[in-house]
Every structure is written in structure tokens, then in C-alpha cells.
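Homework help board

Subject: predicted structure for assignment chain

Our instructor gave us this sequence and asked us to write out the predicted structure in C-alpha cell form, then describe one feature. I got the C-alpha cells but I'm not sure how to describe them. Can anyone check?
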Amino acid sequence: MNKTIYDKRNISMMMDLYELTMANGYMSEKDRNDYVTFDVFYRKNPDIGGYAIFAGLEQVIEYIEQMHFDQDDIDYLRSLHLFSEEFLEYLKTYHFKGDIFAFKEGTIMYPNEPILTVHAPLIDAQLVETAILAEINHQSLIATKASRIVRAARGRAVSDFGARRAHNMDAAVYGARAAYIGGCVGTATVLAGQMFDIPVSGTMAHSWVMYQEDEYTAFKKFAEMYPDDSILLIDTYDVLNSGVPNAIRVAKEVLEPMGKRLKGVRLDSGDLAYLSRKVRQKLDEAGLEDAIIVASNSLDEYTINSIMDQGGCIDSYGVGERLITSKSDPVFGAVYKMAEAEKDGQRIPKIKISETVEKITNPGRKKVYRVYDEEGKAVADLLTKYDEKPIDTSKRYRYVDSKKPWKNMHYEHYSVKELQHQVIKAGKRVTDPVPLKEIRQYVADQIHNEIWDSELRFDNPHEHYLDMSPSYYEMKMDLLYKSQKNNEEED
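My C-alpha cell output:
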């Protein structure tokens, strides 16, 4: 029997089938309990931008901690006739036994660095791939898009209005969470407000205006019900000849006698730059200088930037479909690749080689540092081998620019911060949940204080440097050479 959206579902089953078929195959391996290391990383920033925002970590932790298989799940998997009884019995008492290290949620991140690392027995590391990528890919995409839109608004408030155009209900709710991390001030999605304590806001729909006998009556009734929160939608019929005059009339005849002020008006169509200037003029002439103008209608960072450049008088933007779907670049593209395997007590770095240079992976367990100059600006990120000595910032540090390895490069007058920290140990979380407002503020602090303005450009942003320690670079080059030699066909 098919389940409905209200029926109980076990999110642990949200995985690709091949995770299970591979895990089933590993059951026969004598070294199935040996540890392996997988890295999550991505290859390019959305919208050809200069950065991305790491989001979705809390949901990854929740998934890992609660991962299990119910009898209904076992029965379903048995019905597929793909799995051994040994494997199905193993799943009955399954729990994740490994460790996870990750960037702090909200960290500004860049391509080709490990933003999350799984260090776990082979089967455990395989089973969690799909869920980890689904959470990180979606929320990082929307958080990054929201950040771009918020920056385009230049201090004006941006709210998420995207639920009706989201790819489904979960995408609307968790998209709202990510949008808040990225800098939106709130959401129109009530469930997201309830679950994550995100401020909720909304105005009225055209249907409210159309249902009433006329526009003035619609505004009047709404203002009487919500005298402290009246934002009137003024584009149902004619913005300048009907909407604004009726909004002003309600402000004077209904709200002011109650000792209240009109909170604002909303535009949802037309030339928003031109109309907002005209509306602002009319509101000001009526003594309603404090009434705000809210704009919606298929907005993104490019349209908002254009409106601002044209002198648009908009105080708050409600952004829907192009935010919640990241319409201009809707796939984040984080991947999950093996970096190391442990066999017979030996750690063996693993590398994926491709004819496409960008798809060659960074092998081995590693540490990621952010390097700052004397003014606290992030000048580069640095990969080192996991067991290298801590960086002594009192000394000049030689590093390798992997794109120009022949150059002799050094950091001087610098500081560093290690970016990964442990979030799961032996299957249990070791960090407390971080309040969403704190994550949001962390993003804002990095953008305002640490990130170069050149990386924030919408067009041709500066590419953040990803450097390597000499030891790490030599290990990677040696592995590339050996892998190529070992896999060459004999003549």
C-alpha cells in the first residue's frame, strides 16, 4: 500500500540503491571493519561567484544520530531479492559507528576543499553518502543564493517568499532555513517559522482584493483586522490611479483615527523601479514618509541590482522562485569521494584520476586551514597532511600554489584557523546545536570582516587561493605518478 505524506517514513532509507548493494557486497570482505575516509567537496561556486556558504550540517548530524532500519524497511529490502540474509540481519541493529569532521555551519567555503569528512568503517561510510550530499547540496545552494540577493539589496530587508514555487514541501521548509542563514530577515513559510524560530511575515494576496466589492473596501477591512501590520497590495487594478490613492485613504480614514500608521504597500508587478519612485512620492506627499514599499515578482540579485541602480525606492524585497530554486544555477554539485583507506594498520591515500583535470581529487586525510593577513582578511585556504605538525605562525611558512608549483611562495605576518572540527564521534554528536540566528550572524561577520570585496563581485570575482603544504603537494604528485604507472597497460 502506498504511503501518504502524513504517514511515518524512515528518513534513513533516503539513499541510492547502490549504497545498499555495495554495503551488501562489503559484508563478504574480511576487512569490512577497516576504516576509510571520504571527503565532501564541490568543484565550482554557484553563479560563477566568488564563494559559497556551508549549510545543512545540523540536519546531517540529526540523520547520522538517528539512522536505523525498522522491520518494515527490512521487509521491503528483502522483497527486492538483492540482499543476503546476513546483511538484512546486520541492518536490524545498525547504527553509525564512525566519526565526522566538518566546517562550522555557515562557514564561507571554496571549491576543492573538504568541507565535511567521514572517517568510518567501510559499510558505514558508504551508507551515509546520499543523505549527506542531499542536505549539504540543497541548503548550501540556497544559502549562497540568498547571500547574493541580500548583498544586491544593499541593506534593504529581503524575505523568503518561495514556498509555492519550491520543488516540494521539504524543499520549501529547509530552503527557508538556508535562506535565513544566507541573510534573509524572515520567511513567509509558517512551518519553517515554527520549526526553526525564523521570523514569519506576509501581506495579502490579490484574491483578497478581488473578492471584496472594491479595492477600498478590501484595504479597509484588512486594516481594521490588522491595524498594526497593514501592508496593502496595490497592484491588483491600477497602482498609481487606484492602489496608492486607496491605500492613502485607508491610512487617513481608518488607521489614523485609531492612532495607527499605515505600515506599507506592496508592488507585485510592473516596472518596479519606476513605480516605486512614483509611489514613494505620493506617500510622502500624503505625510506617510514612514510607510515602507515592499516589492516582489520574480526577483533575484540581478533584477534587484538593476532596480537599485535605477533609484528604486524599495525598502523590502520578497523573493520567491528564483531564491528557493536558485533558478539561475540550480545544482550545487558537492560530491563524496574516498580519500583514504586503512589496511593492516597502514593508511593508504586514494586518488581519483580523470582526463578532466578538475575531477582529479585531493587524496588522503588532510587538514584545512584558513590563512589571514595582519588585517584579518582571508588570503587563502591551505591543505596539509593530517599528521603534519601544527603551523608555527611566528615563522615564515613556505607553501605550494598548486596551479603554479614552480614558484617559491611564503606566508609572512599571518595567522591561521583550522576549519574542520569533530561533530560526530563513534556515531554520537559531540557538539551542541547552534542557534540559527548565531549561524546567520557568523555568515554576516565573515562577509563583512574577512572576505575580500573582490571575491564578492557578481562579475569576474577574484578566485580564492587553495594552497598546499610542500609535504602534501609532494604526496599528491607521487600518488598521481604511481597510480598512472600502476594502471598503464603493458605493451
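Reply (TA_rk): Your C-alpha cells look well-formed. For the description, you could write something like this. The radius of gyration is 27 Å. That's the kind of observation they're looking for.
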